[in-house]
Amino acid sequence: MLNMARADTYRLFRSKGFYITQILMIIVATISILTSTIGIIGGGSDALSNFQAANQRVVWTGVQCVKAMSSETSALIYFILPLFIMTIGFEFSRQIYKNPLSSGMTRLNYFISKYVIFLLISACQVIFYYLFIFLAGGFKNGFGKITGHFLVKLLQTSSIQLLELSAIFAISTLVMYLFFSTITAVVTTILFPLIITVLVQIFTKQHWLKYFSFQNNVDSAYFTHCTSGQMSQLLLAGFGTIIVCLVLAFLSFRKRDL
Amino acid sequence: MAAILQMENITKSFGKQRALNHVNLTIQPGDIYGLIGRNGAGKTTILKTIVQLLYADQGTITLFGATYGKDYTKQLKRTGSVIETPVANDQLTAQQNLTYYCKIKGIVDKDAIDDALKFVGLTDTGKKKFKDFSLGMKQKLGLAIALLNKPDFLILDEPINGLDPIAIADFRNLLVKINQTQGMTILISSHILEELYQMATRFGIIDHGTIIKELTKDEFDAKSREYIKLQVDQPKLAATVLNKMGIEDFKVIDQHTLNIYDLSLDNAALVEMLVAASVSVTTIVREHINLENYFKTIVAENEVTPNA
């Protein structure tokens, strides 16, 4: 797995797509910071709108940038998606999987390696995002007061966000392994969170649905105060989705004719 | 010496379509085994089954002594393969692609990449990316990737398809060199039979998912030796005449044809003797069987008697 991680990192750093993705992410974040505005894709809850509105009335120091822009972290879906395509998608669309699988790598090892590498890349992207907005905000308006509470909250928020983003991409992974189609996986990645968001707004009495509204959960991770029960359900929905999708993806891949 | 690969009774179906039908195949160390068959005969399916891109429905495959599970997969590390079209990362150069695969395979030998590029003749591709390679260059890079870990057994699927004549000759020389200098066993599928003839030491003919004939190059050469094709109205009488002339190395092929393998025969004298014996001669000509003719004959016989 370590060999695969080294190889994939090598490939990623030599891909124009990677640098274009990072530059686009920096541009979007910079525009938000310079204009002190936050946007969300596909609509969100009232709480989210209120949080964003409140943040537009304060000075965006580095710390404030992190707080405010945590509510548009779901934009990372679009900045992790290209990395997903480069790490897993191309393997299938270009049949590059044939080389390692035909020369002694087990399908389980390949599957786990690819997913873990993608997970690490996603985590790095989340870290890079927060690091950039903190530094950019800091250089613009000062860094603000970094308290222990803020750091703990940031760690909790980013962990939940990574979990929710991973749940979205676990569904993409399942679609990719089922259909071997990058386009289908990309469309699913974009549409699934939007569809769930719409369903949550339509079926307001189905409270369990909101735990699967991963995009909204990403954006509201910082300011939402969950009870331990709600947190358990949130984690259960996230981890459950990841595990179910990955198990199904591997089962379809395990004995598949390639 | 133990076989490198042994396939016993391998059967594989795709839905209702049976792609491999009780295939038995053995490859010995040092062989260049040429797998011959028409398009859709099952060549690629056999190769994919060996490298576990497909799993057989029935039968056993033994690779370097390992038959099942992890042991088999472990032995696949001793193989290198290019199945169907060669694949690599589009956005990387030849050198970068080899670096990528060195990392995956855990190869730390710094010379491995340069050696592989030099071996296949891709040292001067510079910054050209894989997506911009010609088919010949892609085939060469595919081979270089397969050779990176210095495998004991190389599996190539139609590697000379789409190559120009010079590239084909280069590729052939390359494979023969690998086989002779490194003792590498090679399994190569192709339907370009004259090329296959020039490099293979053994042949397996596959038709409708079944290996219908296996033979060594020496065995084939014995069958393909030059002969005199004689077509007459009374082959039995012609055979008697030949016996009288002291010619014994001949074979009655059908109701009109005899193949005479004794090339010292004086054709004019033979015709004279046959005419004297009231045998009417319609054809007397020198011929030889090449691999293509032999393949066609074997396949045609199999069409007539598929269960023979």
Automatic annotation (TrEMBL), chain A:
<keyword id="KW-0812">Transmembrane</keyword>
<feature type="transmembrane region" description="Helical">
    <location>
        <begin position="186"/>
        <end position="204"/>
    </location>
</feature>
<protein>
    <submittedName>
        <fullName>ABC-2 family transporter protein</fullName>
    </submittedName>
</protein>
<feature type="transmembrane region" description="Helical">
    <location>
        <begin position="115"/>
        <end position="139"/>
    </location>
</feature>
<keyword id="KW-1133">Transmembrane helix</keyword>
<feature type="transmembrane region" description="Helical">
    <location>
        <begin position="234"/>
        <end position="253"/>
    </location>
</feature>
<feature type="transmembrane region" description="Helical">
    <location>
        <begin position="20"/>
        <end position="41"/>
    </location>
</feature>
<feature type="transmembrane region" description="Helical">
    <location>
        <begin position="76"/>
        <end position="94"/>
    </location>
</feature>
<keyword id="KW-0472">Membrane</keyword>
<feature type="transmembrane region" description="Helical">
    <location>
        <begin position="159"/>
        <end position="179"/>
    </location>
</feature>
UniProtKB/TrEMBL annotation, chain B:
<keyword id="KW-0067">ATP-binding</keyword>
<keyword id="KW-0813">Transport</keyword>
<dbReference type="GO" id="GO:0016887">
    <property type="term" value="F:ATP hydrolysis activity"/>
</dbReference>
<keyword id="KW-0547">Nucleotide-binding</keyword>
<comment type="similarity">
    <text>Belongs to the ABC transporter superfamily.</text>
</comment>
<dbReference type="InterPro" id="IPR027417">
    <property type="entry name" value="P-loop_NTPase"/>
</dbReference>
<dbReference type="GO" id="GO:0005524">
    <property type="term" value="F:ATP binding"/>
</dbReference>
<feature type="domain" description="ABC transporter">
    <location>
        <begin position="5"/>
        <end position="233"/>
    </location>
</feature>
<dbReference type="InterPro" id="IPR003593">
    <property type="entry name" value="AAA+_ATPase"/>
</dbReference>
<dbReference type="Pfam" id="PF00005">
    <property type="entry name" value="ABC_tran"/>
</dbReference>
<dbReference type="InterPro" id="IPR017871">
    <property type="entry name" value="ABC_transporter-like_CS"/>
</dbReference>
<protein>
    <submittedName>
        <fullName>ABC transporter ATP-binding protein</fullName>
    </submittedName>
</protein>
<dbReference type="InterPro" id="IPR003439">
    <property type="entry name" value="ABC_transporter-like_ATP-bd"/>
</dbReference>
